[in-house]
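[Automated response] Your request has been received and processed.

Submitted sequence:
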Amino acid sequence: MKTSIIKGIGYYVPENIVKNKDLEKIMDTSDEWIQERTGIRERRWVLENSDESTSSMGTEAAKKAIDNAGISHDQIDFIIFATLSPDYFFPGSGVLIQRNLGLKEVGALDIRNQCSGFIYALSIADQYIKSGMYKNILIVGSELHSGGLEKSTRGRNVSVIFGDGAGAVILQASDDLEKGIMSTHLHSEGKYAEELAVISPATKKWIDKLVEDPDEDGSSYAPYMNGNFVFKNAVVRFMEVINEALVKNNLTKEAIDLLIPHQANLRISQFVQKQLALPNEKVYNNIMKYGNTTAASIPIALAEVIEKDMLNEGDVLCLAAFGSGFTWGSALIRW
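Generated structure:
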């Protein structure tokens, strides 16, 4: 049986940097308030009149991942695209990546698992490779949040958190069973779906109903987050799913050489780090620079880790995420 290794990786973030001080000019907030609650100092938002999109950012990240893997475009067998902010309601952004890269007519799968999207995509790709169906799978996590945020005092609790960006990896089949993905673990709890969600527009409140509703002021379009409730659930599920991966592979928390948690909130990451008793050098966070980029956060962070040469051959890498759905997951990788 084959194992799955991350052969190439790349990321892309818009050039436009939005600092907390910039947000003070358009809403009632402060740099101190944002950093205290989230750890975020700045994020990237595409410019309003820019041609950049979820798929275009994903394409740039994918190009870098393909080059980094040292493979040709023709060697890609399948595409998995994870996002909550696709270019269109339909079709999905996976086919746009296929078009933008000029790939052969490979399958393109779009998944909507929000903050857990990259972990879900990695798990799906791993099964395809282990079954022998594909050899090189392009996984993309890309988000353009800024176009859907309510950039006002009313929307500040959510809008200060999210940033734009994309990350991509090439997952490749390998005969070296000592390396690669050791296991992945996926979970969901739909009874809390509305605690972190965008409810409208939707098929039950579509264009005609929105136009006819005299009370519609646009607030229903904005993301809603029950912040404290999400935080309390996240710290529990992070620990559970990380421990699940360790138990599955007969390892203790001391075996983790590097943890990359989804960049949702620096306070969540710090809580998990404390529970695992991991030193700072074993946990990677970059939310301070990029905010929460949802499905893109883990591959962006991993790409930076590789740039900084923070992983050595044989290291145990743990990836974990929690988000809307609620969904959560982990992956344990022998580098």
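Summary generated for your ticket: The longest strand covers residues 3-12. The CA atoms of residues 10 and 64 lie 5 Å apart.
If you did not submit this request, please reply to this message.
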